[in-house]
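Feature request disguised as a bug: please show the residue count (220) next to Holliday junction branch migration complex subunit RuvA in the output. Example input:
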Amino acid sequence: MIGRLAGRIDYRGSDHVLLDVGGVGYIVYVSDRTLMALPATGEFAALYTDLVVREDLLQLFGFPSLQEKEWHRLLTSVQGIGAKASMAILGALGADGTSRAIALGDWTAIRAAPGVGPKLAQRVVNELKDKAPAVMAMAGSLSEVIEPEPTAPASRPTAAPRPAPARSPAAQSDALSALINLGYQQGEAAAAVAQALGESPEAGASDLIRASLKLLAPKG
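Example output, currently without the count:
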């Protein structure tokens, strides 16, 4: 099983890249979101991969993080969701957006993915809602690998480093863990963190915890 590839991008297609790894070219299918985030042709990149094996076809699908790869695995376990539909959902929402939508039971967000109808979107939410907290908790320990630090000749110009995202992915998992330690159930804690994160995407862990506690406080 090929779990991760790192190499130079030789070619960018509409839904895939050709990744040169030690002189061997791998065609890796990616979502629209991942394709836009990848560096230019000729630059180095790395992707976590999932190999789909069918009688007449072998296809590699690539993901910027293990969290997104895990969502792909879970999405394709739902009847009616194949690799194409999964990539459409992840392309529309990303790993964090998928986590929030499923934790909140927001099937309309899932429906926004091309080719996913309302019944299928509801099935995704119903079947995966209980699994969302565990995937959300993965975010703090898993880093994106789109652009690794390649070993390159000294004469090769290096691209300027990309700015780090304002919010650490650990904030989401830290907030979720804190709420569970306070006695909240995984499902309700995940839904509160997802809602708080949707309202303040750049919030740190402490801000997410405070906002989530307000959402979880008894009404009336």
